[in-house]
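task queued by scheduler; priority normal; single chain, no ligands, no partner chains; default sampling; output format set to structure tokens
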Amino acid sequence: MKRFQKLAALVLILALALSLAVPAFAADSRFSDVTGGAPYAEAVDWAAEQGYINGYNDGRFGVSDNVTRAQLAAIFYRAAGSPAASGTARFSDVAPTAYYVGAASWAADSGLINGYSDGRFGVGDPVTRQQVAAILWRWAGSPDASGEDYADEDAISAYARIAVDWSRSNHVIAARSDGRFDPQASASRVEIASALYQYMNLPKDGETPAPEPEAAGDGKVLVAYFSATNNTENVANHLKDILSADLYEITPETPYTAADLDYNSDCRANREQNDASARPAISGGAEDMEQYDVIFLGYPIWWGQAPKIISTFLESYDLSGKTIVPFCTSGSSGIGSSATNLHSLASSATWMDGQRFGGGASRSTVEAWVNGLGLTLTPAA
């Protein structure tokens, strides 16, 4: 215990030193999926600048991607200064040549991340939000803490409750928009970056804690969707309920008939998909688009791409400064390039990574995806 207390003290000294050296960042983030105006942009750029979390080769940060136990150990190990570690023989699933080999040993030596009873570290297991709170709390020396209960306080495991109270009182991990902590949800890369940034910049004695972090858009949300066969409508309705969002159906001025969707013929849908200039007319429009900061945009996959009516929608509004979260439905095809090919039609918006669902996706499946996005949203009136 004395050794850990000394380590914790050294880490806190490192944290205070780093807090004096956090750089000021430019308005535009280095990552294609992080805009300079995003609430988490400073934390993401800071984590990358310090070398704690690297982006992907394609220029993305991977905002909503989950983080494994091995990845988390490596991130925190770098943040601690990559101290010497005792070795890896204790863990059966940690290869001697793995990049996280020292990190896993350091995390176990320090009492931050314990292995499983079967001798594994659990290198590929996603880390949950309550686990992140517990690890950072241990890193801080396991201080006593109390805090206002979350709406889902009973869902927080006993081992993590003091840690979650500590996290809340120090604004380390942001709550969900509906007041839940969502302890069992997998932590995303942007949540890890934000939590580490908050932790490494904890105030010194007598200082006022920083405001609670926001993960992404802090405005009202619209779910806009086109659904020719009701599959996308199913997912859109789940999103409406989960997010307490407004719902807008993108309705073609000339409805699609069964013959229009006969993909084995020279049908209307095929002709439109093969015509780069096709812009099917929309009946009506979304009211007061200015009030929405976040738009979930849904569509079916037609020959690997979004139907051209989605292009009509995107070109019909000024979407500057808004966050667009695409989602699609298909029987087998993934979202592929269908979303990225739309970016140029609303280039002044922030595009998040999209998600593909089966037409019969359950609410729990959709909700798990939403919770992993790291969004803080205001319910529609």
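post-processing summary
- The two ends are 52 Å apart (CA to CA).
- The first strand starts at residue 220 and ends at 225.
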